[in-house]
């Protein structure tokens, strides 16, 4: 699948070697003439790749003169082809990698303020590092999705049988306290969309955070929350977004995410907002809303985008020098 797509994109024939190291790869490289393009087999067929084995990296290095990494989505992995090889050859970032890094630096490294972050998803436990990093860097942090349920629970609100992490209530309260210390406004749902089951077309109700019935679950933010987030975004200069604010895959619980995405897209088109988004669910939600092309930048990465937002150094980027 990759070979014909690459040949079509380049507008020229592309040869293929059935390995990325060893005699077959070396012979294929030796046979190349000026202007030839050769695709080597996936490095993941070798266990040495994920171990970042020095000998394996050296074997790949013998096949080329320059290393160019254009895979930001794999830059958080210290593998032979992303980290080890970069230290053995003159190295550079590809155009996509450079574009990603530039967009993320503009969004979080040196943003125009006020800076707003929207973080959604199902579990606080998967985004602890992210939340702790953001409360020290952003002016407003909008928390949605099932993650918000844990924060509501931590504040004593009823959550019915909604997905939440009761054991992380203290952690949520700690994040809220730290946000107060840093001057970061944490925006939690002001009204909720609840239903008895997560199914297409389920009967929905709109309630305040004080009123979630015991036999229902929180599945989206309501119109009051959307209206307040709109107000926050109108006052912002930069937005970074990771995670939907509701169960967007199932209608009608996509309404909150769609409404906020439409507002962010509108403000970006008007030139008042730099908007950067990333993560698989986020990209899917923006695609579903039809506004992906209106955002300033939508990252192709998942784990790497998340780790960058967490403030972590990415091995594949660091190795490029």
Automatic annotation (TrEMBL):
One GO term (biological process): glycolytic process
Gene3D superfamilies: Phosphoglycerate kinase, N-terminal domain
One family name in Pfam for this protein: PGK
EC number per UniProt: 2.7.2.3
GO CC annotations, alphabetized: cytosol
Keywords: ATP-binding, Kinase, Nucleotide-binding, Transferase
Gene Ontology molecular functions: ADP binding; ATP binding; phosphoglycerate kinase activity
InterPro entries named in the record: Phosphoglycerate_kinase, Phosphoglycerate_kinase_N, Phosphoglycerate_kinase_sf
Reactions catalysed according to its record: (2R)-3-phosphoglycerate + ATP = (2R)-3-phospho-glyceroyl phosphate + ADP
Enzyme class per UniProt: transferase
Family: Belongs to the phosphoglycerate kinase family.
Database matches in PANTHER family: PHOSPHOGLYCERATE KINASE, PHOSPHOGLYCERATE KINASE 1, CHLOROPLASTIC-RELATED
Quaternary structure annotation from Swiss-Prot or TrEMBL: Monomer.
Record-given protein name: Phosphoglycerate kinase
Biological source species: Rubellimicrobium mesophilum DSM 19309
């Amino acid at each position: 699948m990759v070979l014909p797509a690459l040949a079509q994109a380049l507008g020229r024939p592309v040869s293929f070697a059935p390995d990325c190291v060893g005699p077959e790869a070396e012979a294929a490289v030796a046979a190349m003439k000026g202007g030839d393009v050769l695709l080597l087999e996936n490095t993941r067929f070798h266990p040495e790749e994920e171990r970042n084995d020095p000998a394996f990296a050296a074997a790949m290095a013998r096949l080329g003169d320059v290393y160019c990494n254009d895979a930001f989505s794999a830059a958080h992995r210290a593998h032979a082809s992303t980290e080890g090889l970069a230290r053995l050859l003159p190295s550079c970032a590809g155009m996509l990698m450079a574009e990603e890094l530039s967009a993320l630096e503009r969004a979080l490294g040196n943003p125009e303020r006020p800076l707003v972050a929207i973080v959604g998803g199902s579990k606080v436990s998967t985004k602890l590092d992210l939340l702790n990093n953001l409360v020290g860097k952003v002016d407003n942090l909008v928390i949605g999705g099932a993650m918000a349920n844990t924060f509501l629970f931590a504040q004593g609100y009823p959550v019915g049988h909604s997905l939440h992490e009761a054991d992380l209530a203290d952690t949520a309260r700690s994040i809220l306290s730290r946000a107060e210390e840093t001057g970061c406004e944490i925006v939690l749902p002001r009204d909720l969309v609840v239903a008895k089951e997560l199914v297409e077309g389920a009967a929905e109700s709109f309630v305040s955070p004080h009123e979630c019935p015991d036999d229902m679950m929180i599945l989206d933010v309501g119109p009051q929350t959307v209206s307040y987030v709109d107000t926050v975004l109108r006052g912002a200069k930069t937005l970074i977004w990771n995670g939907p604010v509701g169960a967007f895959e199932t209608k009608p619980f996509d309404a909150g995410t769609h409404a906020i995405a439409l507002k962010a897209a509108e403000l970006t088109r008007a030139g008042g907002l730099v908007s950067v988004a990333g993560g698989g669910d986020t990209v899917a939600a923006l695609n579903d809303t039809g506004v992906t092309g209106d955002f300033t930048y939508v990252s192709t990465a998942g784990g790497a985008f998340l780790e960058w937002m967490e403030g972590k150094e990415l091995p594949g980027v660091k190795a490029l020098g």
